[in-house]
Specification:
Layout: H1 3-19, H2 24-40, H3 43-59, H4 65-78, H5 81-92, H6 99-115, H7 118-128, H8 130-135, H9 140-151, H10 161-169, H11 174-202, H12 204-207, H13 220-243, H14 248-265, H15 271-305, H16 307-317, H17 322-337, H18 342-357, H19 364-376, H20 386-395, H21 402-425, H22 428-431
Length: about 425
């Protein structure tokens, strides 16, 4: 077989094996290693490329952002800042139809800016938001749908693990990716709030609920106590990067220190909790490092096979326009989103399409935002909507089925698709802060 044929079979094998449940980094690494060996009939070459992939990943300075932001997010969760922000938001929206749902979106947006994890958001707000919405008569499907939909903000609003992974794959600045994610993340949050308002007005049966008249207004002093710590962390991290005072690595370190001080000041941090956070940070960091290493050798395999160039030549011969390339890209991500998780989609698809996008003079930072938003829609779609599974497992409520979670999340997946189209049509929205 020719290298091109081996490359095509390897991509198909990777998708198949991941879908069958094999660990993603193992699949990427082993299939790519074997493919390189078969292409060049040289075991030593395959081993050398594997060594280069490992050393490139481990020695990359910006990789330090992963453990630092991961640790910061875990400390923030232990400090209970998500619940505090939600209390303030729900009090402010209490008299609006669907107001608790809007409060959940707002709190998720703020919480995302200090955790960067959709899974953490889904877990936290399943516990604090869904029970309250059910108490006030909201439709259970709407309640879980709001939490599922707004949880994806954790992967778009920086600091985001997916933006970090993309920055390594596409060799882009982590700081630029973080800044580019701010406007799209806020756009999506505003779009969710607008969608909830429209659903409350034109589809009230789906929303349900009643005015929460028994909500006690929160005094301004208490509002400050509940929100200032979170805003301080956001200001240190994003403010430091935006002003240029801090690199992403330094911002991660500063944010982690501030979060730790806040958790200790609030009496939420014990020695045992600190040790657990360190261990979990190590586990998450190791898994992401493994992913990036596997993606590195996968990219080299694609280059040896000539698959990206062949795809580019094919599209050039057929004179496919930019519009249809983006349509193909989005459809591919939506399809893979029903089968694979976000990280897998980024690692498999981005190396294939980068050689097509670069010659067009398009911003790879903008392309990264498009990629993450498109792949994140998969968190809400069956059969592998990870956020939906997390919500179901966290609630452990027999009254709410997994089907209810998916159906509740469907309108929010549609809103994400509309925002994605706007971001593709108007690249300046993603690059506004960078320009």
């Amino acid at each position: 077989m020719s290298p091109l044929e081996i490359g095509m079979l390897s991509v198909a094998a990777i998708v198949f094996l991941i879908y069958m449940g094999l660990y993603i980094p193992v699949t990427l690494g082993v299939v790519s290693f074997v493919s390189i060996w078969l292409m060049r009939d040289n075991f030593d070459l395959a081993m050398n490329l594997l060594k280069v992939a490992v050393s490139d990943s481990v020695m990359e300075y910006t990789f330090a952002t992963v453990p630092l932001f991961t640790f910061m997010g875990l400390i923030v969760s232990k400090a209970g800042l998500g619940s505090d922000v939600y209390e303030v938001m729900s009090s402010g929206f209490r008299r609006v139809k669907g107001g608790i749902g809007m409060a959940t979106v707002g709190a998720n947006a703020v919480f995302a800016a200090v955790t960067g994890s959709s899974i953490a958001s889904a877990s936290v707000f399943s516990k604090v938001s869904v029970p309250q919405m059910l108490q006030y008569g909201y439709n259970p499907r709407f309640a879980v749908g709001v939490v599922a939909g707004s949880s994806v903000l954790g992967m778009i609003i920086p600091p985001s693990a997916m933006l970090i992974i993309y920055s390594f794959v596409a060799e882009q600045s982590v700081g630029d990716m973080f800044l580019a994610g701010v406007v799209p993340g806020l756009m999506l949050a505003v779009a969710y709030v607008g969608a909830i308002w429209l659903m409350g007005r034109f589809w009230p049966r789906f929303v349900g609920g009643r005015a929460a008249e028994d909500f006690e207004p929160i005094p301004w002093g208490e509002i400050a106590l509940k929100t200032v710590p979170t805003l301080l962390i956001i200001a240190v991290v994003l403010g430091g990067i935006y002003t240029g005072w801090l690199t992403p690595v330094e911002a991660g370190a500063a944010g982690a220190v501030v979060a730790l001080i806040i958790a200790m000041a609030r009496g939420r941090m014990t020695l045992k909790g600190f040790w657990e956070a360190l261990l979990e940070t190590g586990h998450i960091t190791a898994s992401i490092l493994f992913l990036i290493t596997a993606a590195s050798i996968y990219s080299r395999m694609l280059g040896l096979a000539g698959l990206p160039n062949e795809l580019g030549d094919l599209l050039a011969e057929s004179q496919v326009s930019f519009f249809w390339i983006m349509v193909l890209y989005v459809l591919l991500m939506l399809f893979l989103g029903t089968l694979l998780d976000t990280a897998s989609i980024i690692l498999i698809v981005v190396p294939l399409f980068l050689p097509l996008v670069e010659p067009m003079g398009l911003s790879l930072v903008w392309f990264g935002i498009i990629t993450v938003v498109g792949a994140e829609i998969g968190l809400l779609t069956p059969p592998l909507g990870i956020s939906c599974f997390v919500i179901k497992a966290t609630l452990n409520d027999d009254r709410i089925s997994l089907k209810d979670v998916f159906l509740g999340a469907l309108p929010f997946a549609a809103v994400m698709l509309v925002v994605l189209i706007l971001l593709i049509r108007y690249p300046a929205l993603s690059l506004a802060i960078l320009n």
